[in-house]
Write a structure and sequence with these properties.
The protein has helices spanning about 15-25, 55-65, and strands spanning about 1-5, 30-35, 40-50, 65-70, 70, 75. By secondary structure, it is an alpha+beta fold. The chain has a domain at about 1-75: RRM (RNA recognition motif) domain (Alpha-Beta Plaits). The strands form 2 sheets. The chain has a 4-stranded antiparallel sheet, with helices on one face. Strand 2 (about 30-35) and strand 3 (about 40-50) form a beta hairpin.
């Protein structure tokens, strides 16, 4: 099974339309347009999973650069997701804490 990234989608594209676009190349396991979790608006990209690797490669070759409603699609094999750290983006690098603690730079003025 091959997972395909489809970028530069028109924002009006639905998952069903994305599936229909790829169906002429072979069997589709899934097609999903990614939407913003707060607004529900399309983020302009999606993923298609195709069961046959040869059919997936043909779809990638044929649809990369394909014009869909005035936008040229960027189609490629999807890269695996990178593991995110559980620290949430901000990494404390030591030093001193803002208030209190043994490294308080304000000295004894509390």
């Amino acid at each position: 099974m091959t997972k395909i990234f489809v970028g530069s989608l028109p924002y009006s594209t639905t998952s069903d339309e994305l599936s229909q676009l790829f169906q002429s190349f072979g069997t589709i396991s899934s097609a999903t347009v990614i939407s913003d979790k707060f607004t529900g608006q399309s983020r302009g990209f999606g993923f298609v999973e195709m069961e046959n690797d040869d059919e997936a490669q043909k779809a990638i070759k044929e649809l990369d650069g394909y014009s869909l409603n005035g936008r040229n699609l960027a189609v490629s094999v999807a890269k695996p997701r990178e593991e995110k750290s559980d620290r949430g983006g901000f990494q404390h690098r030591g030093g001193y804490e803002r208030r209190g603690g043994f490294n308080d730079r304000r000295g004894d003025r509390r």
